[in-house]
Amino acid sequence: MPKKAKYLVAPKPKDTKLTKLISGYDENNKKIVAKVIKEKSLTIFLNNQEIVTLMSIGDHPKYLAIGYLLNQNMLKKNDKITKIEFDKDLDVIVIRTRRKTNYEKKLQKKITTSGCAIGTVFGDIYDEIKKIKLKSLKKIKHSWIYEISKKINLTPSLYLETGAIHGCAIIENNNPIIYMEDVGRHNAVDKIAGYMFLKKIRASNKFFYTTGRLTSEMVIKTVKMGVPILISRSGFTSWGVELARNTNLTLIGRAKGKKYLVLAGENRIEYK
Amino acid sequence: MPKKAKYLVAPKPKDTKLTKLISGYDENNKKIVAKVIKEKSLTIFLNNQEIVTLMSIGDHPKYLAIGYLLNQNMLKKNDKITKIEFDKDLDVIVIRTRRKTNYEKKLQKKITTSGCAIGTVFGDIYDEIKKIKLKSLKKIKHSWIYEISKKINLTPSLYLETGAIHGCAIIENNNPIIYMEDVGRHNAVDKIAGYMFLKKIRASNKFFYTTGRLTSEMVIKTVKMGVPILISRSGFTSWGVELARNTNLTLIGRAKGKKYLVLAGENRIEYK
User: Do B237 and A22 touch (CB under 8 A)?
Assistant: First the structure.
């Protein structure tokens, strides 16, 4: 077993701003104190337009806002961000771009997906995704899949402290390097997408790990980031598999212990 | 241990319309066939207005549409439904009411919550929920909590067949009587709400069980149904607990084996 993961960004389970102690009772009617995750609202503006109000754990508003806008196609890869203003009392973040933006029409037509939490994706994103074919030749070694899961499971996290939270990670070979958590699985992905964009981190030689299910929405966000391999301990949906095959994404699911299933892009697995 | 659950509505794991067989590879590079859940879109109209497009497993479009509209406050408890038209080729359902409806303004202002999947709740629902105090004196016996979980876990389900799915159930004493599943947890709840409404099933003497987390959204939907006790194998969020306390809902979480925690409304637990 290789050494522990070294993170650029890791969960902060000891950050008392993210959790709350709540008193209650256990199954023996004994008074207990439970540590529970806190939800905070974040209202995102793009230039002068209010886009959405999300419920998040509130740890990375900047990455969340940027990643959300990228994943909703409201911020383009070549957009120049001129200013980011966050008001932590109002829970409002404003992203300003050089390009003038107006998404009023777009905001009126959403598709609510089966993905966890945010679940809203705009129709035009499907059209865009269908045209993408991931070309990365990066391979994943059979043994890494187990090592990655193990390292993530052993990382101190809000999940281990409080439960009721989803986690996502960016992996380099067999090492998780960015690990973010949120009450909404989509938020965790969006925060990672925002971080990758702002820090200009190359995606085509990385893997993406999620604790959540491999739905169409998760596939779309992974493909939009340009990451060629998506791994989950959880299961698949048929539309997720179909989109992964269409976009040449490798989809590894039900990764538990030394077991896993590959339902798309098996050519990127190096079995020995 | 009491006998098996007798359901009014149970999951249909053998319904081949709900699943798909997909070929892939396991961890030994052996070719396998995996059974995977299918997602279908459903576009809901209320009278002449298109309200939303959801991704669902497609088993109960009528209950899903009615429950969704109820939970979004677009259908009122005393509304008279004059017609339900479902076009299964177009995946469109139209709910017609005697009352004239227009929610154009409302549709423009949503809050995306941390709940699983749909994640959109309109601001006015919070205002409504704050005024509700559940008055039901119905109690739950300590031993029932374990029996309920056990019966649900032993029920043949899509979860056991395919994974990647959430389940919800309505419980009478220690018996699950309605058990619905969906790719989106919210959809499973909405289908149950729609069923309860159309079949005029009394809520104040029932319990609600969910495989998902106890977020604010789950609390809101339970309170709107009028069910006084909410049980989950999963964890809590702080806002979920706060809303449960404000509305006098009993919140039982982390129910695994014979263990559980109660963080709100402990007066409804009968410990012996």
Answer: no
CB-based contact A114 B55, cutoff 8 Å: yes
CATH code (residue A97)? 3.10.20.10
**Domain assignment present for A20:** no
CA torsion angle for A160, B118, B128, B234 (degrees, to 10)? Answer: -30
Contact: B241, A36; criterion CB under 8 Å: yes
pLDDT in tens, B53-99: 888 999 999 999 999 999 988 999 999 999 999 999 999 999 999 99
Domain of B146 in residue numbering reads as 1-272
Edge-first strand listing for the sheet containing B19-26: A175-182, A166-172, A207-210, A229-232, A250-256, A259-264, B19-26, B31-37
Question: Residue B27: which of A26, A258, A263 has the nearest Cβ?
Answer: A258
Question: Which residues of chain B neighbour A110 with C-beta distances below 8 Å?
Answer: 52-53
Count how many Cα atoms sit within 13 Å of the Cα of residue A261 in the half-sphere of its side chain. 20
Span B222-266, pLDDT tens digits: 999 999 999 999 999 999 999 999 999 999 999 999 999 999 999
Is there a domain that residue A11 lies in?
A: no
Calculate how close chain A gets to B80, using CA atoms only, in Å: 27
- B263 CA to chain A: closest CA distance, Å? 4
Cβ B164–A216 below 8 Å, yes or no?
no
* Distance in Å, alpha carbon of B177 to nearest chain A alpha carbon: 24
Cβ contact (<8 Å) for B261 and A32?
A: yes
- The pTM (predicted TM-score) of the whole model is 0.91
Kindly provide the ipTM of the predicted complex, given to two decimals.
0.88
Last residue of a domain, one of A83, A104, A130: A130
Domain finish residue from A130, A158, A176: A130
> Terminal CA-to-CA distance of chain A, rounded, Å?
16
**Identity (one letter) of the amino acid at B172?**
E
